[in-house]
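Thanks for the sequence, V.! I ran Glycosyl transferase right away. Repeating your input here for the record:
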Amino acid sequence: MKLLSLSASDLSGGAAVAATRLHLGLKADGMDSTLIVGEKMGGDPDTIGLDNNLTFSLRRNLDLAPLKLDQAPESISYRSLAWLPNKKLERAIAARNPDLIHLHWTQNGFMPLSLLDKLTAPLVWTFHDLWPVCGALHHEYQNDLRYHEGYTAANRPRSRRGLDLDRRVALRKEKAYKEHNIEAIVPSHWMAEQVRKSSLWRDRPLTVIPIGLDTQIFKPLQKAAARDLLNLPADKKLILFGAMYAGSDKNKGYHQLREALEQLNLSKDEIELAVFGMSAPAEGESPLPYPAHWMGVLRDQFTLAALYSAADVMVVPSLQESFGQTASEALSCGTPVVAFDTSGLKDIVDHEQNGYLAEPFEPSDLAEGIRFVLADTARYETLCENAREKVVSTFSLPQVVKKHREVYEKHLA
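Predicted structure:
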C-alpha cells in the first residue's frame, strides 16, 4: 500500500506531532508512507515540505484575510476558511499517485476544501479538532451549537455582524463531503460524541483511535538525573505545565492554572514550577505565585521526556482537548497528571488512579488535585506505576499503527 499523509506542518503543534509520529510508526512497520507538509521543520527524508517559512506564513495570512468581513468578537476561538488554492500541493499529490490519502490538520492556507473534489484516491481523515464539522471554528464557541443543527441565517447569534463566514464554510464542506466516502478517525470518545452530534457528519463512518507515542522515548528516567541534566532544583516539589502557544491560547488554561496555584497554600520553600511552550510573562503581567523555570519551546522529544521525568506532577488545565498529548506523554514518563474532567483528557487520566480529574473549570479543585498527588508518598508511587502502565497498555505506537492499518485495509476493500 502506498500511503500519502497531508499535514500543515510536521512539528508545529500537537496535530502536526501526532501526524509525524504516526507516519514514522507506519514506516517502521514496513509501510510505504510519505508525509507532505506546508512547513517542514524535522529531518525525515520521507517528509516533503512545500514552502519556506516566508511563503508558509504568507499563505496562512492570506487564507485568514477574509475574516475581516465577519465582525466576530475578539474572544472567539481560532478559525480557518480553507479557500486559498495550492497548485504546488496538487502537483505533489499527483506525482505521488497514492493508493490512499490520510488527511490530518490541513489549515493555515495549506489545503483548500476545493482540493477534495480533485482527489481520486480513497480518503481517511483524522479530526484533530472540531473544524471538519464546524463552520470556520476549530472549537465550539460559548455553547454555539450551530454545528449540531446546521448553519442557517435563523440560528446565527445576534451578537455577530458582517458576512456569516461560518455558514459559508459549512456549506462548502457539505458539498465537498457529499462527493466522497471519507473514513473519519477521532482520537477520543469525547470527540466521537461531538462529531456524531454534528449535522455534517451525523451519519458518516467514524472510528476512535488514540494518538500514539514511542514509549521507548517517553519513559521514566531517574528524577535526580533528569533534574541535573536540565539544571532544575533537586530539593523541590516540581509542578510542570506546558503546551504549544500555552500563554496566548486561552484554551490551554494558563489563567485557570494561575488561580489554582494561588489557592494551593503550599510553602514557596517547597514548591517550584517548570513551564514549557511559552516565554516568561512580560513586565506588568501577573506573575505565577511560585518560583518558575521557563524552559521555552521544546521540540526535541528526548529533552521533553527528561522534563516530564524531572517533574513530580504535570498539570494540564485545558478547557477542551481532542486528546491531550502532553498528558499521555507525562504519564508515559511515570508522572501523574492533574486535569479538568473534560473532553479527550477523560480517556487518558483515570481519576485518583494515575492522576486527578478536577471539576470543570474550578481552579480550587485543580489545586486540590495537585495536593492529592503530592500529599502521600506511598500513594504517589502507585500513581506513578499506574501512569506508565496505562500508556504502555493503551497508547503505545505499535498498537496505534495496527489500528490504523485495519482502518486503511477496510477502507480499501
